[in-house]
Amino acid sequence: MSAMERVCVLVRHGQSEWNLQNLFTGWRDPALTELGRSEAREAGQRLKQRGITFDKAYTSSLLRAQDTLALILEEIGQPGLETVCDTALNERDYGDLTGLDKADAVARWGKKQVHAWRRSYDVAPPGGESLKDTLARAVPYYLRAILPDVLDGKRIIVAAHGNSLRALIMAMEGLSPAEVVACELATGVPILYRLKSNSRIESREVLDH
User: Fold this and answer.
1) Which of the following is catalytic: 39, 75, 91, 129?
2) Among residues 13, 39, 42, 75, which one is catalytic?
3) 173 carries an active-site annotation
4) Is 75 a catalytic residue?
5) What angle do CA 53, 56, 58 make, to 5 degrees?
6) I need a surface site. Which of 125, 138, 145, 159 has the fewest CB within 10 A?
7) Using one digit for the tens of pLDDT, what is the confidence trace for 165-194?
């Protein structure tokens, strides 16, 4: 089996209506904006230009990720690809912050506290999840479901969210909590991984503009 066959592409969903409005989204289900749909189509076009197709897809239970995936698959000519949806890949649950404007949250709780909720590893907002909590569901799912498919030679695409993808990246790249917190993912930009047979990374490429 060649390294080319052990392919895993991660892509954060395109811009959503709540991204545009600067709202905490979490498990809510706003639609993609027109820009978000364009980002998804462009992601598909970049994959198509590289001649990359897939054997299976994974996504979350949230529509912005599912719609992003559907647009990508249309662009690469695989609209009927086998797809698994699972809440393990959902965005981090922001609890009481969900639906709030980020500036309003700062006005209510203070910049330091909101920054801790947004950018720390293990501090959860009221009623919500920390990044560590998100890892606790996303990483076992990656190890149980996604990684075995990749190591079996399947080409896999995962369309999900900023924080659930950070969790996968932490597992794949062996990042520390400090490193994963600093990891920023642009909307609609595929990250192409090729893995070795021992699950270590052979190569990593960001397919941006």
Assistant:
1) 91
2) 13
3) no
4) no
5) 115
6) 145
7) 999 999 999 999 999 999 999 999 999 999
